[in-house]
């Protein structure tokens, strides 16, 4: 018994170390896009872009993600070696932003963000199942720590970049920006992606689906009502989120006439509040159930967005940004934990790929529609649009079945009596 307890303790300590490294890596996958959102108004003015063209930049990135997410999940489930794939993803995300420093062409810029969209989508199918499988009873909390890493990257990047823009050009910044990604890629590769660590972290090779089994498992996932409803709800939620972070800096620069430093501070405030809310929401979802936390957070997000639309150009608009971040970003990890609750373990990477693939469609639509609305009706119309999309997201979540699933490897989730998604079944 003492040997078993010692082994369990060692596994827990090792997993905890990996949680922090994976979360820091996740932060850097968000660092690069967060940097670019702050640079978008400057790039748009330099290249003479319309709101629609600015929106199309992000649409191309997310459309590439929509196409590559499900194949990315396939690669993760069939190849294993999640640490290696996480390191590759992190490097792949940073490199295209470095290449942007050489562009004076709108079309080359679109090509770079497309590469970002492809590379970024290896990260989540590798990282999220790894953490969920190591802490099956605390998925919500552990994935919230992972989400906090993303929030931290989103928060620190605009602060630092806003300050650097007072001294450097945006082209110099994207060159400097690749250095932390390279360093962290090497760290993850050595500490998590090594063959020894992979042997401990990965399920047995025989448990991984072969190509034919993968296709059959994917078809089963797409027939799973919980997976479909969660993914569609997630698509409308990220439609709200990514249209917001595309046009909020543009609004603050073009309409509120704030300096890059203050815009960076506002964007950081949005993320810091999400950082604070994530572990609270994750823990409560483990205790109270996923649905209750998701529905209440999304409802409050809609209320805050409507308040921002009414606030217009007043100072109240800026204060509402903090409240928006608290509710909008609290639910990412909860939705991921719920998805892992309802799928078999050996298809977890694929399920995350499905979720992020469908979400990427929403991400691609949001900035494009927001740009068209802004060109036709003004930037404030974007916030009315966002309030509507988060309400639709909440409706999908409200009607998602509360089915539990087996956390063991297998091809079919164990569907039994209805239970709270936050409970083990």
Task: Give an overview of the whole structure.
With 425 residues, the chain is mainly α. It has a single domain, classed as Growth Hormone, Chain: A, CATH 1.20.1250. Helix content is 80%, strand content 0%. The longest helix is centred in the N-terminal third of the chain and has 46 residues. The radius of gyration is 21 Å and the shape is globular. The two termini are 26 Å apart. The N terminus and C terminus are likely disordered.
Give a quick rundown of the structure.
The protein has helices at residues 2-47, 51-79, 82-99, 106-119, 123-134, 139-164, 170-176, 178-191, 195-201, 211-223, 225-254, 260-288, 290-311, 315-328, 332-341, 348-377, 380-398.
Name of the CATH class: Mainly Alpha
Percentage of residues assigned to helices:
over 70%
Overall 3D geometry?
globular
CATH architecture: Up-down Bundle
Distance between the termini: 26 Å
Biggest sheet details: none
């Amino acid at each position: 018994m003492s040997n078993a307890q010692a082994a369990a303790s060692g596994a827990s300590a090792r997993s905890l170390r990996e949680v922090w490294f994976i979360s820091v890596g996740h932060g850097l996958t968000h660092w690069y896009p967060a940097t670019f959102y702050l640079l978008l108004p400057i790039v748009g003015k330099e290249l003479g872009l319309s709101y629609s063209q600015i929106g199309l930049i992000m649409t191309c990135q997310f459309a590439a993600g929509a196409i590559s997410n499900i194949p990315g999940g396939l690669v993760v489930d069939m190849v294993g070696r999640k640490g290696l794939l996480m390191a590759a993803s992190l490097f792949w995300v940073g490199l295209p932003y470095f290449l942007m420093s050489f562009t004076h062409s709108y079309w080359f810029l679109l090509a770079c963000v497309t590469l970002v969209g492809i590379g970024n989508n290896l990260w989540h199918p590798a990282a999220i199942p790894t953490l969920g499988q190591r802490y099956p009873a605390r998925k919500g909390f552990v994935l919230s720590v992972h989400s906090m890493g993303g929030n931290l990257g989103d928060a620190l990047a605009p602060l630092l970049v806003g300050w650097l823009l007072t001294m450097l050009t945006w082209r110099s910044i994207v060159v400097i920006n690749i250095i932390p990604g390279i360093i962290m890629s090497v760290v993850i590769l050595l500490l998590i992606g090594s063959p020894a660590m992979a042997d401990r972290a990965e399920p047995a090779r025989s448990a991984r689906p072969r190509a034919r089994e993968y296709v059959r498992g994917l078809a089963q996932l797409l027939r799973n009502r919980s997976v479909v409803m969660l993914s569609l709800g997630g698509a409308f939620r990220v439609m709200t989120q990514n249209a917001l972070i595309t046009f909020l800096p543009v609004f603050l620069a073009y309409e509120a006439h704030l300096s890059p430093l203050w815009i960076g501070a506002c964007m950081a405030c949005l993320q810091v509040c999400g950082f604070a809310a994530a572990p609270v929401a994750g823990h409560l979802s483990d205790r109270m159930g996923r649905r209750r936390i998701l529905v209440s957070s999304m409802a409050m997000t809609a209320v805050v967005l409507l308040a921002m639309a009414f606030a217009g150009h007043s100072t109240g608009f800026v204060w509402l940004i903090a409240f928006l971040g608290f509710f909008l970003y609290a639910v990412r990890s909860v939705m991921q934990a719920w998805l892992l609750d309802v799928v078999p373990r050996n298809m977890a990477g694929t399920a995350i790929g499905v979720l992020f693939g469908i979400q990427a469609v929403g991400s691609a639509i949001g900035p494009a529609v927001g740009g068209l609305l802004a060109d036709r009706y003004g930037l404030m119309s974007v916030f009315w649009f966002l309030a509507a999309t988060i309400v639709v997201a909440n409706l999908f979540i409200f009607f998602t079945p509360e089915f539990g699933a087996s956390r063991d490897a297998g091809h079919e989730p164990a569907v039994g009596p209805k239970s709270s998604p936050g409970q083990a079944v």
